[in-house]
Design goal:
By secondary structure, the protein is an alpha/beta fold. It is built from 11 helices and 7 strands. The chain has helices at about 25-35, 50-60, 75-85, 100-110, 115-130, 140-150, 160-165, 165-175, 180-190, 195-205, 210-225, and strands at about 15-20, 40-45, 65, 70, 75, 90-95, 115. The chain has a 5-stranded parallel sheet, with helices on both faces. A two-stranded antiparallel sheet has the order 4-5. Strand 4 and strand 5 form a beta hairpin. Helix 8 crosses helix 10, helix 8 packs across helix 11 (about 210-225) and helix 9 (about 180-190) packs across helix 10 (about 195-205). The termini are far apart.
Length: about 230
């Protein structure tokens, strides 16, 4: 060591974050916020499931920020894929979808947090650091709702589509309510039209709908409320 000089201390490595969203402006805004932080870095971007998986393999990020609606693909399935292949990779969902419908589902799929795009600008850094520290991030109202459901006394099964339908069934139901036909849903979810129709049949059975038109009307009404 040179006399009179203190040993230099290496700067801590930045935590690497991959942004997965089909809107370039959203990715640009998130990247701008993250790059201002001395302990965080953006290591890549992707707009669909295929590119996201390739980028995770190539960059091995510490955290993946995922939207639920991606270009020609589905964010919930991507979360399951990443969790299965790289269980040490943390994931945070930043989405426009109703948190009350999807927060618990994304946690079960393997993500560690959920924040809506409406509050992302204000709380995104807090949610990122919370998940990177190994904790779960949800807003206070959602945390209270989930805890209340887990600790509530047993009661009759809920009758809402969100409670009765499995993940894929809820996605088909939601896209039906947004006006997509069978072929469009098949393309969006990377399924065959026959498989989509099978899901529709299961949905009608679970929701006790006798006619195909009943499914469409209920899905549209649901979409307008959510």
């Amino acid at each position: 060591m040179v006399p009179g000089k203190k040993a230099s201390r290496a700067a801590p490595a930045r935590r690497r974050i991959l942004l997965v969203d089909d809107h370039p402006l959203v990715r640009e805004r998130l990247a701008e916020i993250i790059r201002r932080e001395p302990d965080l870095a953006v290591c890549g971007e992707a707009e669909d499931r295929h590119l996201a998986l390739e980028t995770v393999e190539a960059t091995r990020p510490d955290l993946v920020i995922v939207d639920l609606t991606l270009k020609n693909s589905d964010g919930l399935e991507l979360i399951k894929d990443i969790h299965a292949r790289w269980p040490g990779c943390q994931m945070l969902v930043v989405s426009m979808h109703d948190e009350s419908l999807y927060a618990e589902r994304v946690l079960r799929a393997g993500a560690r947090g959920y924040i809506t795009k409406q509050e992302a600008t204000r709380n995104i850094l807090r949610s990122i650091r919370r998940v990177l520290q190994g904790h779960i991030y949800l807003n206070e109202a959602m945390s209270t709702q989930i805890l209340a459901r887990l600790t509530a006394a047993p009661k009759a099964p809920a009758a809402t589509p969100a409670d009765l339908l499995a993940d894929r069934e809820l996605q088909v139901f939601e896209l039906t309510g947004r006006g997509l036909n069978t072929r469009q849903i098949a393309v969006r979810l990377h399924l065959s039209p026959k498989t989509v129709e099978t899901y529709r049949a299961r949905i009608r059975e679970k929701l006790q709908l006798n006619r195909p038109d009943d499914l469409l009307q209920l899905a549209i009404a649901w979409a307008h409320r959510h």
